[in-house]
Design brief:
The structure holds two protein chains of two kinds. Chain A is an alpha/beta fold. Chain A has nine helices and nine strands. Chain A folds into two domains: 156 residues, Rossmann fold (3-Layer(aba) Sandwich); 61 residues, no CATH class. Chain A has a six-stranded mixed β-sheet with strand order 5-6-7-3-8-9, sandwiched between helices. In chain A, strands 2-1-4 form a three-stranded antiparallel β-sheet, covered by helices on one side. Chain B has one domain: Orthogonal Bundle (ABC transporter involved in vitamin B12 uptake, BtuC), CATH 1.10.3470.10. Classes of the chains: A alpha/beta, B mainly alpha. At the A-B interface, strand 5 of A face helix 6, helix 7, helix 9 and helix 10 of B.
Chain lengths: 240, 266
């Protein structure tokens, strides 16, 4: 990739009290690339995404963004209190009004239709994730950041969700940075994998990471089958 | 004859003013699950009352200052890792206790504490009304101005941040608005019942509202109806006015749950 990165983290560290959550993490996200962060619980994956969005203060390091970078973000948990009457359309129209046509467009891209007028809190878990994905797609983002977007989805549901994300990438040409637990799916659909455990253990193309000793040490060798799946699925479309 | 010469008119206007700002703010209190925070702010205001009496300044300023101080203490303690409900429980009750003790020290003349605990709307002066009007203008202005930003910060802090809204600033907007409401409402319903005026109309409105704006407006309507009906009831039955207003709020809420049950509305 010779293009300038959209966003670049330089040696960033984040502390909560005296505990180091992230230490000297550096990464670059290039246009159009799907990057997945994997790592055990408590490895700082969500914190890294929040730091990139700017909602967590850095104790060290810096983040360089391309000037005027448009970022869409899907947070890990969105607990909207059921006492807050909010339709899907209205949720997408916060804090700025968005035209109805654009709302319908991003909802369609996220695989939902005819739900702009439904109350958000009455949707199923999968529908909510899609609404939040749609929200992240508003305003034609160059970078879409997704924090465990398939939480609460069953296996077919999450497989479908990842296909949707690949489609969105090829349709919009945006870069995607996500956190995921589903290693086999991650391996199948990412251009770049970062294995995080407070620091970057290893990073690279999925096949490189999957064979790295650091990755094996964290996840064991149980992902061999997933790697085979990765190779199998990706013989026909890759590096476009 | 000027209507402001009549204490009943002054009381009615004061009730309307407080209800109109308490209700929309109460919606945020409900949406953000800050009910206990409202109580803590109100209890802190009693300490503010004591300080105002001791320093001989307007009660409004004392209450406002202590309510803001309470908000600062809450966020400082929360940042140290105490659970929110513990922090609020500790601060709310200690502020009330210290306030009551402090009031007992103030002045040789016995101060009627119950006026501050339960309100004394029938003694609202023209000056009080002017202060309430300022409070109404500032809180409504603030809420209308920041409405969408407040909503997205309520939905999710990181989502707000990603959309260019600083959730911490919005939290302070609400904190300040809450302090103003508490300060002007002390005279009307008293520190112990402000929480009711915030919460109950908002909770009543929820069943009938499809949008956040509708809920805020409806809550304000329920609040005003409760204030005026409560005033009327207390006049005819010779009951304490602040508690009577809250009773009407509660009856409206109860009524709304019955309507929901029969399925005739919404």
């Amino acid at each position: 990739m010779s293009q300038l990165p959209l966003i670049q983290a330089n040696e960033l560290s984040v502390h909560r009290g005296t505990d180091a959550i992230l230490q000297h993490v550096s990464l670059r996200i290039h246009p159009g690339e799907i990057t997945t962060i994997v790592g055990p619980n408590g490895s700082g994956k969500s914190t890294l995404l929040k730091a990139l969005v700017g909602s967590v203060p850095l104790s060290h390091g810096s983040i360089d963004r391309q000037p005027g970078l448009r970022v869409g973000y899907l947070p890990q948990t969105v607990n909207i209190d059921p006492t807050l009457p909010l339709t899907v359309g209205r949720l997408l129209s916060l804090p700025k009004m968005v035209k109805r046509a654009e709302i319908d467009q991003v909802l369609a891209q996220a695989g939902l239709s005819d739900c702009a007028d439904r109350p958000f809190t009455q949707l199923s878990g999968g529908q909510r994730q899609r609404v939040l994905l749609a929200r992240a797609l508003l305003g034609n983002p160059q970078l879409v950041i997704l924090d465990e977007p398939t939480q609460g989805l069953d296996q077919p549901g999450s497989a479908h969700f990842y296909r949707q994300i690949e489609e969105i990438r090829s349709e919009l040409g945006c870069a995607i940075l996500m956190v995921s637990h589903e290693l086999h799916v991650v391996m199948a659909s990412s251009d770049h994998v970062i294995c995080l455990n407070g620091h970057v253990c290893c990073a690279g193309r999925p096949e490189q990471v999957a064979t790295a000793p650091e990755y094996r040490a964290l996840f064991g060798t149980g992902t061999q089958g997933a790697l085979a799946l990765y190779r199998h699925e990706h013989t026909h479309h890759h590096d476009h | 004859m000027n209507v402001l010469d009549d204490f009943l008119w002054r009381a009615a206007l004061a009730g309307i003013g407080v209800a109109v700002i308490a209700a929309p703010l109460g919606c945020f209190v409900v949406w953000r699950r800050m009910a206990y925070f409202g109580d803590a702010t109100a209890h802190a205001a009693i300490l503010g009352v004591a300080l105002s009496l001791a320093l001989d300044v307007s009660i409004l300023f004392g209450a406002l200052a202590m309510a803001l101080f309470m908000a600062v203490s809450v966020s400082a303690l929360r940042d140290r890792g105490y659970p929110m409900d513990t922090v609020l429980g500790v601060l709310a009750h200690s502020a009330l206790a210290f306030g009551l003790v402090a009031v007992s020290f103030v002045s040789g003349i016995r101060v009627d504490v119950s006026a501050y605990l339960f309100g004394d709307i029938l003694t609202v002066s023209v000056t009080d009304l002017a202060l309430i009007a300022c409070g109404v203008a500032s809180v409504l202005g603030l809420l209308v101005w920041r409405w969408n930003r407040l909503l997205i910060a309520t939905v999710n802090e990181e989502m707000a941040q990603a959309a260019g809204v600083n959730p911490k600033s919005e939290q302070w907007v609400l904190t300040f608005a809450l302090a103003v409401v508490v300060a002007v409402a002390i005279k009307v319903v008293g520190a112990l019942l402000i929480g009711a005026l915030l919460l109950i109309p908002a909770a009543t409105a929820r069943r009938f509202a499809g949008t956040p704006e509708a809920m805020a407006v409806l809550a304000a309507v329920f609040g005003v109806v409760s204030a005026l009906t409560g005033l009327y009831v207390s006049w005819y039955l010779d009951t304490p006015t602040g508690p009577s207003m809250v009773c009407v709020c509660a009856v409206l809420f109860w009524g709304s749950t019955l309507i929901r049950k029969t399925g005739s509305v919404v």
